[in-house]
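go over this:
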Amino acid sequence: MARRDPLLGALVLVAALLPPLFGLFGGGDDRGPAMTVFWLAMSAIHGSYALLTRRIAALLVGDDPLLRGGRRLWRLISVAALVWTVGDLSQVAYALGSPGDRAIVMGTPFFMACMLGGMALALTGALTFPGGTRAGLRMDVATVMAAAITAGCLLIELPPGPHNSSWVLTLIVTLLVAPGVFLLAAFAVLRITLTSRHPVTLAAAVLNGLATLLQALMQAVPLPVYLNPRSGAWLLAGTLLANMLLLIGGRVQHQADTVRFRRRSERPYSLLPYAAMAVTWIAGVGMLVAEGLTWRSWLVIAGSMVTTGLVVARQAVAFRHIAVLLGERDELAAKLTEQAFHDALTGLANRALFMRELTETLSRTEVTVFLIDLDEFKPVNDRFGHATGDRLLIEVGRRLRRCVRAGDVVARLGGDEFAVLMTDLDPARRAEVEAALTAELTGLVTLADVRVPLRASIGTATGRLDPDSLLHEADMAMYAVKNAGRPFQANSAA
């Protein structure tokens, strides 16, 4: 049974009570006290998150690249949370000093710098976490980010007023606050969750994702809604809830086995890019119906086209990868076939391949089989060692190849027994091959620094009998030669 965590229960209780209480009682006309409480709560949340993530980093002990990357990630997130805490405390001071300024709601330039600086630190940790360099992963991230950028266009509200330098500065801040932070968060989540190993547990990842989504939705609301005391209080309550979810996710991660990195399920394909493409086209159609051909509609349509192009490119990468895999499979199959049908020592065909070739050839034409057994091979092994015996077998294989044509089959049937399969041999040509085999396999052979004797008994059979009968005829002829002490004897099987 899982052990209960009192602190986690307390955090869940605070997350359930604090946001609705602030929404109910934080909407008065005098916003100074309410905003002071809000920023104090945010300071406590971010400060606690900084401490918690620092402890998570301390649990990741070891020199494994994943452990080092996870440790660096959580440390940078901890520093980012400290930067956010500094920004929150600056807002507390500003709310106490200027309770009527709207910056106590939307943030001073210093607060904005702290927020963006913290996001940059967290993003750096996500970028440096070891996640592999697969082209498919990069294409998936690029596709979803293109869709996120398209969705970010929906968060843009052009500031009112004349298009002067002040308007441009306001537009830049608007882009950074709403879609900019949303895209940074989306990229960080993608960079972590699409890697082969996650540095967070599934429960913590879900909580962090919900927090990111909720925070992005809160930032997408136009400024006038925030400035209204009643509606603004509930929006700020949503911000409190998002950050509490982040803190709860950190606690869940801290209580889990953080040394084990959760492995992403290996699937032959990813549905996320296709879902992203569908979302962009649905958004584009929706924008056309709602607004017609406005500048925002053109941006969404362009984003849809880019997303579709990336999906097509991803498929091309997948097809190329499949082609490489098929080539590797064919190469491996060829190697396995080579190993299955060839003798590892001599490189000659083995008994299985010889019998297959013999059976197939007999179905078409008459064949001649030469069956060869080395005489006195065991004394060579006993006197000179098995290494010398192996070298002698290799040399026999070379000499047999010299006696045959390119399309003929030379095989080692096992031990010191060899066979040659030939077709279209008239009696004169058979006699030439017989003489060549006898000459090649008779005499002294120099192997490294020793000279060993070589002699073989050879039996042959020619005809169109079944394979076993033909081999039996050749075997009988070979043993007749061995018993008689003569170099060669031939049988003809009709």
